[in-house]
Design goal:
The chain is mainly α. The chain has two domains: 6-66, no CATH class; 71-98. It has helices at 6-30, 34-40, 44-53, 60-63.
């Protein structure tokens, strides 16, 4: 799953709140449940993410968690991203700095 660089995030992030509203409006208009609305409504933020990354069908909520700046460095052992900038253990392989 690709992460967004800061310049990309600045293009997508303003669209996220409108995306929540679009899904809510879709539910009201079509009288459907949340799952159906998520599957059938493609807010602008989702379309922009797809355009930037080439990954179709990514849920709106998932985009919030793919800002690269919010994650830590790559683990030197397994190359998995650390969970935060201050993380001192890799949740994937258990690596800890000496």
């Amino acid at each position: 799953m690709p992460f967004l660089e800061e310049d990309e995030w600045l293009q997508v992030s303003p669209l996220l709140a409108d995306g929540v509203k679009a899904i809510k409006n879709y539910r009201e208009k079509h009288g459907c449940d949340l799952h159906t609305a998520r599957e059938n409504c493609k807010p602008e933020a989702m379309l922009k993410f797809e355009e930037m990354t080439g990954m179709p069908g990514i849920h709106l909520e998932t985009i919030y968690h793919h800002r690269l700046k919010d994650w830590g460095q790559e683990c030197p052992q397994c190359n998995h991203l650390l969970r935060t900038q201050k993380a001192n253990v890799c949740t994937k392989c258990g690596w800890k700095p000496d």
